[in-house]
């Protein structure tokens, strides 16, 4: 019997749950004054795992990322990183949001250099690292351009290169591609999965796009509305080397997105806007 390449890839992929833990949320709650943002969150991210977070607006998805980054602490429960309580500004994680925050007075290379300069690398080390990063994100030859000379997708690639510059082992993405058109978004999704797999990053990725949530993930955590808690974690048994351009023909993908839409429909229709 011959095994299809896709099935071979699935069976060859080690079960993420057997890999070491990176981030653990244990009975986590976070209140901002009288407002209970999240409650009773339990979730473990393993090495090399790609987890997407979906849920109604304001249910606390970004709050979860912020606690992993050490931007603020939980008000109950515990957030740990490789077994240690997350302290202020967790330097093991890199954070990318919808806004790319590129410095308009610096070139692409100059923007990517920022974390490397802060880390105190020599000029030669910085130059070499920038060349590697430009290559990695598909921006070779654009190092001397300024952000206002770049397309939306190129700006995202530049922000991604800067994010990867100091080699954080975990990447936190908060709706990074929400403002891109559908085709560009697909291209960036392909890049993120390729880079995550190539560099073996662990990823927490917040999105409102349910198709994206399935296409990218190994697991998808579904939140309730505020105070947000994780209602269900959906396993996404698509191959690690999945072809995002052709997922629409994949039966598992179609079934999983339909299921996610069904799960989310009541919460989405109840939203005020
Ligand atoms: N620093 C803060 N100070 C006060 N309230 C906050 C703070 N951060 C978040 N909140 C509140 O906590 C709740 C959860 O916010 P959060 O941004 O985590 O939700 P979200 O699920 O990411 O929302 P969205 O999908 O709309 O981006 C919201 O009501 C928000 O107003």
From TrEMBL:
PANTHER family, A to Z: ALIPHATIC SULFONATES IMPORT ATP-BINDING PROTEIN SSUB, TAURINE IMPORT ATP-BINDING PROTEIN-RELATED
Keyword Transport part of the UniProt annotation: yes
Family as reported in the entry's similarity comment: Belongs to the ABC transporter superfamily.
Stored InterPro entries: AAA+_ATPase, ABC_transporter-like_ATP-bd, ABC_transporter_ATP-bind, P-loop_NTPase
Keyword field contains Nucleotide-binding: yes
Protein's name according to its UniProt entry: NitT/TauT family transport system ATP-binding protein
Organism taxonomic ancestry: Bacteria, Pseudomonadati, Pseudomonadota, Alphaproteobacteria, Rhodobacterales
Record keywords: ATP-binding, Nucleotide-binding, Plasmid, Transport
SMART domains membership: AAA
All residue ranges annotated as the ABC transporter domain in the record: 23-246
Pfam families documented for this protein: ABC_tran (PF00005)
Organism from which the protein derives: Salipiger abyssi
Molecular function GO terms recorded: ATP binding; ATP hydrolysis activity
């Amino acid at each position: 019997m011959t095994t299809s390449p896709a099935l071979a890839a699935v069976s060859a992929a080690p079960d993420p749950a057997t890999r070491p833990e990176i981030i653990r949320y244990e009975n986590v709650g976070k209140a901002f004054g009288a407002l209970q943002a999240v409650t009773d969150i339990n979730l473990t991210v393993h090495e090399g795992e790609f987890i997407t977070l979906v849920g109604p607006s304001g249910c606390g998805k970004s709050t979860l990322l912020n606690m992993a980054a050490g931007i603020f602490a939980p008000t109950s429960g515990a957030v740990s990183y490789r077994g240690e309580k997350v302290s202020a500004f967790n330097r093991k994680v890199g954070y990318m949001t919808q806004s790319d925050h590129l410095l308009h007075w610096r070139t692409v290379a100059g923007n990517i250099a920022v974390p490397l300069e802060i880390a105190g690398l020599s000029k030669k080390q910085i130059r070499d690292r920038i060349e590697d990063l430009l290559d990695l994100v598909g921006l070779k030859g654009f190092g001397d351009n300024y952000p206002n000379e770049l397309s939306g997708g190129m700006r995202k690639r530049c922000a991604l290169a800067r994010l990867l510059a100091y080699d954080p082992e975990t990447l936190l993405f908060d709706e990074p591609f929400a403002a891109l058109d559908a085709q560009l978004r697909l291209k960036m999704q392909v890049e993120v999965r390729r880079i995550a797999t190539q560099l073996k990053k662990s990823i927490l990725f917040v999105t409102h796009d349910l198709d994206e949530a399935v296409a990218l993930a190994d697991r998808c955590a579904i939140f309730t509305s505020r105070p947000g808690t994780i209602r269900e974690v959906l396993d996404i048994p698509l191959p690690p080397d999945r072809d995002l351009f052709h997922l629409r023909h994949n039966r598992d993908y179609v079934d999983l997105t339909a299921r996610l839409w069904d799960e989310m429909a009541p919460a989405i229709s109840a939203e005020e806007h």
